[in-house]
Amino acid sequence: MSLEFATIASGSSGNCTYIGTEHTKILIDAGLSGKKIDEGLNKIGVTGADIDAVFLTHEHDDHIRGAGVFSRKYKTPLYATVGTFNGGDYKMGKVNPILKNVISHGENIIINDLCISAFKTPHDANESVGYSVITDKHKVTVATDIGHVTKTIMDNIKDSSILLLESNHDIDMLKKGSYPEPLKQRILGERGHLCNEVAGKLLACIMNGKLSYVRLGHLSLENNTERLAFETVEAILNRYKIKVGTYLDMAVAAREGVSEIIELK
To answer: Which long-range contacts (CB under 8 A, 24 or more apart) does 131-137 make?
Structure first.
């Protein structure tokens, strides 16, 4: 049995991640229009009707924008915390209550051959979570929208084969940029977003022989660049004698458009 992973989009303007096997296909977040989600899935040979469930990390627009439309069109079950549903209901519009499944951090959801585990993340949302998706052979973790690194986050991303990790901003770019001061402080705060440097240090701490693919995601349009994110993280890993390209495949997930499919046998 093989496992596939691809980001449909990953950035401050919209987020959607595809994870699938022969028997089960899910999305983590639906922060794009329904049309763009369909277009992205079609590019990797999947249709909206193939998706068994959508798991939402939190209620911010760039993670939930297309969830209601997608669920209504394909009768797709949605999974989220109480806080996410409460905060996001007005954005999603009317969704059949039967399709709304409440989850809690620390809970495991079994869908066919996938086990989806939600874990708590520190972010300025009602009740945000990240997700680890586990098969009999592999583990894929999506960890974005993280104000600071916690033991819970580290414990959940350890032993992953694929990791989508937030590398949202460069601190100097953010501080010198055009954002109003309250927004800068929100991003830099304990419930904001992870910067390039902290992403690199986190990776260095949790690296082991199982982690083969890292995709740096949720990059800010104004306060980061793909090159800067990659080079900052790579430099930190080099200091810890971790060579990108040797046994670790690392790249930046596309802000818009589908990234290459990673397939694990």
So the answer is: 131/28, 131/55, 131/57, 132/156, 132/157, 132/160, 133/19, 133/26, 133/28, 135/1, 135/3, 135/21, 136/1, 137/1, 137/3, 137/264
